[in-house]
């Protein structure tokens, strides 16, 4: 089949998010200027540069108690910082719980029973036992086509790695099995790894 998005797909569910899949999940912690804590998952997320390391995530839609966006971006706009926590398979249910449309004064980590740590290079909370956390300083917010669609870019200024995930000098994903989002309500996790040499590599 072929369809132009503006004409509709004619299927019972939108296939778009099942096409660009699997997507890694940024479990983003932020802090409001009033000291409130926030945590929510974002799968329009990726790493985009090595030197200096940089990441991006996209926010779509808005909350009833926020001006044209969600709590995460609202806090980042105010403070200029955020932390990306990596989600392990074992935390899939609590991650999902933090995605609810909770009021802005709800501390999702506390609600879900997630222990909080403090970031080292930014004034922001983080998930204490996440396999990895990227402490980020906002570099830019880009408005996208359509209402309330925006991308935020951040420079990574500090990286936490959980000690048990470092095996033989490598950050070993098989130790925690990163969760990833597919389309619809489907998820997957990395349980199998294989190696390929690039052409010209010895
Ligand atoms: C696995 C998963 C991935 C999500 N990815 C995104 C995303 O990339 N962008 C987005 O705007 N919302 C995404 N959501 C929905 C947000 O998590 C949800 O709107 C949440 O309430 C936002 O919280 P906040 O207002 O505290 O930022 C995702 C939800 C789940 C469960």
Description of the molecule:
The longest helix has 9 residues, at 71-79. The relative contact order is 0.20. This protein has one domain: Pnp Oxidase, Chain A (Roll), CATH 2.30.110.10. With 202 residues, the chain is mainly β. The protein has a seven-stranded antiparallel beta sheet, with helices on one face. It contains four helices and 14 strands. A hairpin with a 5-residue loop joins strand 2 (26-31) and strand 3 (37-42).
Per CATH, the architecture is Roll
Report strand %: 35-45%
Bound molecules: flavin mononucleotide
For the secondary structure, the number of strands is 14
Largest sheet: 7 strands, antiparallel
Order of helices and strands: HEEEEEHEHHEEEEEEEE
Which percent bin holds the helix content?
10-25%
Q: Numbering strands along the chain, what is their spatial order in the largest sheet?
A: 3-2-6-9-10-5-4
Low-confidence stretches: none
CATH fold title: Pnp Oxidase, Chain A
Cα-based radius of gyration, to the nearest Å: 18 Å
By helix and strand content, what is the structural category? mainly beta
Alpha-carbon distance between the two ends: 43 Å
3D shape: globular
CATH homologous superfamily placement: Electron Transport, Fmn-binding Protein, Chain A
Features:
single chain; 202 residues; mainly beta; Pnp Oxidase, Chain A; 7-stranded antiparallel sheet; 3-stranded antiparallel sheet; 4 helices; globular; binds flavin mononucleotide
Furnish the topology, listing elements before pairings.
Layout (H helix, E strand, L loop, with lengths): L15 H4 L3 E2 L1 E6 L5 E6 L2 E5 L4 E7 L10 H9 L1 E6 L5 H6 L10 H5 L3 E3 L6 E3 L4 E12 L5 E13 L4 E2 L2 E2 L7 E3 L5 E3 L13
